[in-house]
Amino acid sequence: MPLIKTSGAGTTASADVVADPWVSVGDDDPLPAAAPVIVSLTRWERDRDALLATGRPVGVRLASHQLATSIAGDLDHLALVALEFPTFRDGRAYSTARQLRERFGFKGELRAVGNVLRDQLLFMHRCGFDTFEIAHPDAAAAFAKALAEFTVFYQPATDQRTPAPRLRHLRSAAE
Amino acid sequence: MPKHVVTANRLIDGAVVYLTDCGGWSERIQDAIVADGKEADAALTAAADRAVADCIVVAPYLIDVDTAADSSVLRALRYRERIRSDGPSIHPEFAKNLKG
Amino acid sequence: MYRYDEFDHAFVRQRVDQFRDQVSRRLSGELSEDEFKPLRLMNGLYLQLHAYMLRVAIPYGTLSSRQMRCLAHIARTYDKDYGHFTTRQNIQYNWPALKDVPDILMDLAAVEMHALQTSGNCIRNVTADQYAGAAADEIEDPRVWCEIIRQWSSLHPEFSFLPRKFKIAVTGAPNDRAAVAVHDIGLRMVRNEAGEVGFQVLVGGGQGRTPVIGSMIRAFLPKRYLLSYLEAILRVYNLLGRRDNIFKARIKILVQQVGAQVFADMVEDEWQHLKDGPVELPDGELERIQAYFAPPSFEPLPTLHAGFVEAKDRDPAFAAWARSNLADHREPGYAIVNLSLKPVGGVPGDATSAQMDTVADLADRFSLGEIRVSHEQNLILPHVRQKDLHSLWQELTAVGFATANIGLISDIIACPGLDYCSLANARSIPIAQQISTRFAELDRMHDIGELKVKISGCINACGHHHVGHIGILGVDKKGEEFYQITLGGDATETAELGRLVGPALPYDKVADAVETLVDTYLEHRQGGERFLDTYRRVGLQPFKEKLYATH
Ligand code: SF4
Hints:
With 175 residues, chain A is α/β, with parallel strands linked by helices. Helix content of chain A is 30%, strand content 21%. Chains in contact: A-C, B-C.
């Protein structure tokens, strides 16, 4: 799967296609040599200690019904959390992402997987996702454009974009 | 088995349209090409699907029409489809089948 | 009224540009209909029975005369010269072409309006008491908070793909004219024992297939916490609301499933992490928005204008209109004037472009340029001096807006039904027309008194039939239009759901049935009882017996 990574913050954020060092492994697949792996919550709960003992970076993939609280205590050990969008209509991962970032302080890579579309990219980015598995690499330019479609935001989220109420406040304080 | 015509909405303006025998789309059900039997249905559906792919119409489907009484007058059987072909019952001035 | 600043202007323009790009991608074939549909719905654009339908938000029901003129211009330029005011403080255009919609949205943006979030599984247009800022019984103007919610919910990154649509209504008065109990979240401004104003929070109300009266999960929420508390409710719902079954996806089902107390606890838990966080308004923002809703400069006037009283004595038709179509204003010498969009035999909620322009002119001349739209599908001039009422009434009569029927049997709420709506089972509008024609006689209507008839063309209940004193629901019986009748519904602070009287009736029997129900009420009425009071006292049985004995 082509992978897009956003860099920069706020309205200057950009999106580029990058190489993906992570390997997704099934619940009963053997682990590849040394590579960082993404496992399901089931495998994480079952093989947690063995996975950590290999010394490699480990990521967990949550299905959209699996809550942030299911891994909240383990976040120090995880370098990546992947959240699934089984269809773009299933918006649970937006809330899970914000909880991971804002409530549980997760600093690692937060990856959007599944039905990831350009028309939702900005929402995802605002909720704290920083990498995105997309279906076609040639869509990357459109994704980058989607990040720049708005300069005004009304509510604070996980990103660095300053919401309009705050900008108004800062402006009137400066006057 | 009632006979069928294909209806859809035109993509660009949403107008209710019917597939005609020259492969076009008309706002008047009178102009529709009538399918009698499964094979004819399939041929019309295929033509409609091509029009979807070509961005001419959206959401085409077959509707039952009443041709029993007088084959020169086409009327939809279901009341919902009559409202679609004739316009809102409360706005007789919008009725499409009256003109022409 | 609120006015956009540079941020608000930039935002709606960027949204229009984004949609223009999406439309051109659709017309070029880059987007399929499946991909485009959710995008157009997020901009209030449906594909209905006859054509596209564009639903434009009238946030909390407030319009300036300039905005009303723009709505008229859109009807005239891009549509068939009329629009339909809905039960959710929106206006719907029934015939716009897809290619024109970006231009329509640009015209709307110029007058600080939009079609954002009038559809889709997001936080919808926030509704309010149509008398807000004018009502005599008001604690505080709820529109300040509606505007805050409007901004906060606009393209909310976390809550744009909820399990289902989400409706919030706010009332600032104890007499609930905004039907807050049948909304996903209902907010009532209340005063606590210390005299501070805050919100009583109801969740899980709604109509549709599973009508529910909302449960109170918080008796008093200090105003400054509104956004963090809403964010907590929405987050719990977004994570836990059902997504496997569209009929069970509204928040009401979640609240029923876990129980209101457990739901309140979950919200409380989430709220502890959000409270006092960045979502709360920064200093100055509340005051900034509040300033826009400061009362206009009213003239000091005597409580009762002598000329108004005289005119009523002189002119019984004016007196009848004044009795039904006026409401008490907070300022002495002023009145709130309801313009009836329910002329006898007319289409409830429809207005032509010429009528909209006239209302705009009348608002400029008589109501400080302000207009309101009610969920009961009428228009309101909120600030009229009593001394102007008689001349205003004469002008309203000339344009057909002076039917003296507000709150009476012919002031019917009706959804578009099968004449427009692709989800409908049966027509609603012609039923409303039949009933209003049947009860056209003014004295009889006034004698019957307050009676709310509400008609929906299918179980989605856009016509609020569950909360009609008489509710009428269109059903399909083997391809024929049939109608179920419910009694005793109530959308106000004493909210209740109507109960089914009996088997559904055919199309041509509905007006007769309503007449029978009214006759039954008149037979049993005691003293000054309203229909609803009599029903509550005598119950369903007498109505049922009468109805099914004769039909
Ligand atoms: S109640 Fe049903 S018929 Fe009426 S507008 Fe809503 S969806 Fe359409």
